[in-house]
From TrEMBL:
The name this protein goes by in its record: Pali-domain-containing protein
Organism: Gymnopus androsaceus JB14
InterPro entries given in the database record: pH-response_reg_palI/RIM9 (IPR051380), SUR7/Rim9-like_fungi (IPR009571)
Keywords attached to this entry: Membrane, Transmembrane, Transmembrane helix
Compartments, record wording: Membrane
The keyword Signal appears for this protein: no
Length: 248
């Protein structure tokens, strides 16, 4: 097997760093892509009724929106407790006709208000999974940096991952911001909104992806201290153009 066909044969430090960064991006994006109601602890938006001195009831006082649906919680059935599937609605892409009207009335919302606040979210929900897919492929191609062509291919995939992650983060953040400003007004401050942990997970994936681009770009353009490597023959051995340097 030629040297440039073997993983980690050249530029191993850059390869390992890129694999770690892109693996982190993949895991974070996958967690968000499989968020509530598939993975209960991960959600995009939390809509809740501020605590009062009223006795605890089983009526829904909190909604959490994930990529694939919505889960409702009450004071007697809080998020920290294992829940029956009946409290979650989904998995389904989009929120239209997912939340029962009775539940929305119980928490003080209408379907029109929910649709207005979450308008546009459906268009980027699937991007969470697509971005995770690109990061998954790019973490494997980053193992073969001995090949300049594979390096460019990995760089392109990582750029796509970073751009998709940026789009997802911006849209998620904007929608949470709109919800935070509109829902309290629509409900007379009867409900409040918090940003979900999924938004911060996407931010982490975004940062990891852009860092990966920096390292891959350094390898692709032989800059930032990265030396060009020259293969002696079709075997496994190779050498730097500057033979006195062992830098990656």
């Amino acid at each position: 097997m030629k040297a440039h066909h073997k993983p980690l044969k050249a530029y191993p430090k850059i390869s390992i760093i890129c694999v770690i960064l892109l693996l982190a991006a993949f895991v974070l994006l996958l967690l968000v892509g499989l968020s509530l109601p598939i993975i209960h602890p991960v959600y995009i938006i939390q809509v809740f009724a501020p605590s009062t001195n009223q006795p605890a009831t089983s009526s829904a006082s909190e909604l959490r929106f994930g990529v694939w649906g919505v889960c409702a919680y009450s004071q007697l059935n809080p998020p920290s407790v294992l829940h029956d599937d009946g409290l979650c609605y989904g998995p389904k892409l989009g929120y239209a006709n997912v939340i029962p009207t009775s539940l929305l009335s119980e928490i003080g919302l209408t379907q029109t208000e929910v649709d207005g606040v979450l308008e546009g979210l459906l268009g980027v929900l699937i991007l969470h999974i697509i971005a995770a897919g690109f990061s998954f492929v790019s973490l494997f191609t980053s193992l073969f940096l001995a090949s300049h062509g594979m390096t460019i291919f990995s760089l392109v995939l990582t750029i796509i991952t970073a751009l998709l992650s940026t789009i997802v983060f911006v849209v998620d953040a904007v929608i949470v911001g709109v919800a935070k400003s509109h829902i309290p007004t629509l409900t007379g401050n009867g409900l409040a909104v918090n940003v979900g942990n999924a938004v911060w997970l996407v931010l982490g994936a975004l940062i990891a992806s852009w860092l990966g681009i920096i390292f891959l770009s350094a390898r692709a353009c032989y800059c930032c201290g990265v030396r060009r490597k020259r293969y002696i023959d079709d075997g496994d051995e190779y050498s730097n153009d500057n033979s006195d340097s062992n830098n990656d």
